[in-house]
Amino acid sequence: MTNKPFFWKLQDNILDKENKQTLIKFIQSTDRFTQFEEVKKFEREWSAWQGRKHSVFVNSGSSAILVIISALKEYYKWEKDTEIIVPAITWITDISVLLQLELKPVFVDVNLEDFSFDYDDLASKITSKTKAIFLTHLIGFPADVNKVKQIIGKKKIHLIEDCCESPGATISGTKIGNFGMVSLFSFYWGHHMTTVEGGMICTDNKKLYHLFLLKRSHGLARELPKNLHQYYKNKHKDIDFNFLFLTNGFNVRNTELNAVLGSSQLKKLDGYIEQRNKTYDNFLNIINHYPEFLLTPYNNGISSFSLPLILKKQYIKNRLQKFLTRNGVETRPIIGGNLLRQPFLKSEFKNKGFPNAEFLHKNAFYIGNNQFVNSKKLNRLKELLDIFFSNPKNITHE
Fold first, then answer.
1. Which residues are paired to 106 by β-bridges?
2. DSSP result, 55-116
3. 149 and 280 share one domain
4. Signal peptide location in the record (predicted)?
5. Cβ proximity of 163 and 64 under 8 Å
6. 348 and 280: one domain?
7. What is the pTM of this model?
């Protein structure tokens, strides 16, 4: 049997007519498309929305990770094989950047409530070499940051928040991304809002902010705030200031076009989040009819990224995922599943002691959530789940 065309995709086009008209108007009004005033404007707007002092717009969430880790390593003089704690389920560049910069990822299992760290396992993995905890707020669920900070205590361990899948999620009314020294966001096509490609770095630390600016654009001094320019002109009189490199950097700038789109999308982000969360509530009402088969994760501070289907039995998960795909519902794993199973990691790291990551790898997948998931789609999902779970062949182990 061939699969039907997807009537429910992981992500639909969220660029509306107004977004496109805004882009057209900007293109017709300017000759400057590389990083300039629109980027700065979007950064200011994002800082105001997020509630942090400084924001740096880059070309992807993964580039944000690269800039952050490179800057922290330089700023704090981290040595080779400095330990950075990471979850076993997150996006792969949280890990690959550490390896590229010769740091040592220390994997911690996840929990099945907020999908962040297993907090007991986290506490057990901290050593004298631990310099940072790289926390992921996974698929819209805010991690228990207060618990993480309690575990850190008075240790000199920095907290990095990966908020790429959870902008606007809250903990006791405070947005995630405001608890750690630095946080990062992604505006990729399938996320809560989009700049097509793009990411943002947020911090309240001015010195780190300046280092992020440098590393975003080759290490060039001219990227710094103008009030610092004269100092470096005087300090390095033998070098043309426009080509003065203060550190080793990258080219991960974004463009004026992406920033204009970001500003346009940001105006609607709160509405997008509200719609996603309403859909998630309706989704929970549907899957609550099948407690024998499905887990029903919920958190008061959620900013729903997707609609996870977590089966208690792996064989039922495998059958349900195929069934939904055949019937026009696009599915995917929970991010990349247990990363310790990935080819480029399994040769170096042992996949032992991660039972919850293994459970989600084998028993879970998700379907898309966005502002286009309407009652018609949800009713069809309920019909499909009723058909599936009412058939003994689907739920009986052979």
1. 85
2. EEEES-HHHHHHHHHHHHHHHTTPPTT-EEEEESSS-THHHHHHHHTT-EEEEE-B-SSSSS
3. no
4. none
5. no
6. yes
7. 0.97
